[in-house]
Every structure is written in C-alpha cells, then in structure tokens.
Specification:
alpha/beta, Nucleotidyltransferase, domain 5, five-stranded mixed β-sheet
Length: 269
C-alpha cells in the first residue's frame, strides 16, 4: 500500500517552507512552517534551516517520505545551477548532502517542476491535454513544461534572454517589489515575457504560481495573450505538495547509515 501522507519542503531564494501533505486530497494537514532562507544561500546554512523545518513539521515522527524541492537545475541528485542561492551549489551532490544533514532519504527535484507536478495531479493542470506551461513568479521565475500531463524537467524558462536581459531579472515578482513597480508597469513586463513564451511554445494553457498568484486579479486581466492564462490552484503551496507527491511516487531506499562518506585519503608515490 502506498503512503498517503508525506512531507514536502520547498526551498526558495527568500523562504523555506514545509508541511505534511495528505496525498489523497492534496491538502496540507499540518501547520505550514516557514523560515527565511539564510543570507548568502550557502549549502550548510540552507541544509541546517531545512533540518529545523523538518523537525518542526514532523514533530519527532520521521517515518514519512520526504520530498525537497530547490531553485536550481537538478540532475541525478546534483544541483547544476544557482541563480538566487550561493554558487557553491553548482555541481554539488545536493541530494546526498541533504540526506546526510537531515538523517533521512529524500526525493530531490527542481522547485517549479514540483509545482508543475502538483498542479497536474491536484490542480489547474489536472486533465488538461496538450502543452501546459506553469511559471512561478517569485524571487526568480521558475517553469514547468507539461505535455498531456507529462513533465519535461529543468526547462529554466525564467532565464530566456529577451531584449538582451535575463527574463527573471526584468519580470520576477521580486523585481516588482524591488523597483516598486505598479501592477500596470509589471504587467507590461509580463506581457513581453509571456508573448515570448507563446511565440516559442504555442502552449494550450499558462498557469501562474508563486505567492503573487493570490493577487492574480490585479495583473492577469492586464495581459493580452491568445493563450488562456490562469492562477495555480495551490498558489504558493504547489512546491510543497509536488515535492511530497514525488517522494511517494519515487520511494527512496535508505542507503545505510547516513554518515559522512569521505573517501579516505590515499598517498601515491
Ligand atoms: C532558477 C530555477 C527556479 C526558479 C524559481 C530560477 O532562478 O534558475 O531553477 O525554478 O528560479 O525558483
């Protein structure tokens, strides 16, 4: 029998949040614990904050599957990019580092992919045929590309170069806040961004996630696109939900004692 509850932890450039999820309904069934992402976003600091969240969320019961999502390209458990966290993550065996730090096996995935998976299972992309692009508008811009509900991972469409700029540096929600842009001014930048996505992918549906999606009425009606664009059902909880659901879909096998497996130093002559 597969587990129906799991823990999801969503690591972002600004905050790290986690909760226990009921996977039969897609609802959070514990308090959502959120702590600030440590300044500088260095591996040890982020892992320690994640450990604190896990401790609070699991309240001593560590037997639930755990999924962790992270704002970087994730290939075979390694983080391969770092846009809003320390560059020390690039090329790091991150999944293994988390497992050692948390003392528990995890499923590890890109944050926007986790959100896309959650919306496909429990939200706005459920049963949607064709090409669906979910974008998360937060510290950066994350993307999940789905075709007939199947995810193509690590698309990184927040880093499309548009008019010589990295798209997320012009249109992420953090930019609206930092530059104190009105909804109209920000929507103008989003228009450029989504028009570029539309021209490249001819999607059937755009889904907008991230914390700001709760204010979707302020900006989605200002966009003029031929593709339908709707808010994510699970708003800013989609990452937590998707990470938890993926942890159940891909059960992890404990790798024996989770201790530091440093290669013993050898001498050569
Ligand atoms: C990262 C992506 C991430 C997105 C949202 C981007 O800067 O490159 O991997 O999904 O931010 O957090």
């Amino acid at each position: 029998m597969s587990a129906t509850t799991a823990i999801g932890i969503d690591i972002g450039g600004t905050g790290i949040k986690g909760a226990v999820v009921d996977l039969s309904t897609g609802e959070l069934i514990s308090e959502r614990v959120k702590l600030a992402t440590p300044k500088g976003g260095a591996p040890d600091d982020i892992i320690e904050t994640t450990r604190e969240i896990l401790e609070k969320v699991s309240e001593g019961s560590s037997s639930l599957p755990i999924g962790v999502c992270f704002p970087a390209v994730v290939k075979h458990g390694h983080t391969m990019s770092a846009a809003n966290v320390s560059e020390k993550w690039i090329g790091l065996a991150a999944e293994e580092r988390f497992e050692k730090g948390l003392g528990h096996p995890i499923h590890f995935v890109n944050d926007a992919d986790a959100a896309g998976y959650a919306e496909a299972q429990f939200g706005a992309a459920k049963g949607e045929p064709g090409v669906v692009i979910l974008t998360t508008l937060g510290t950066g811009i994350g993307s999940a590309l789905l075709n007939d509900g199947v995810l193509v991972p690590n698309t990184e469409l927040g880093h499309l170069e548009i008019d010589g700029h990295d798209a997320e540096r012009r249109a992420a929600y953090s930019v609206k806040e930092r530059e104190d842009l009105s909804w109209e001014k920000w929507a103008h930048r989003l228009q450029t961004y989504y028009s570029a996505l539309e021209a490249l992918f001819s999607p059937d549906l755009f889904i907008v996630g991230g914390g700001v999606s709760k204010s979707y009425e302020e900006f989605l009606p200002l966009l003029n696109l031929s593709t339908r664009i709707i808010p994510a059902v699970h708003r800013n909880n989609a990452g937590i939900l998707g990470a938890a659901a993926l942890a159940v879909k891909f059960p992890t096998t404990p790798r024996g004692p989770l201790v530091d497996e440093q290669v013993p130093a050898t001498t050569t002559r």
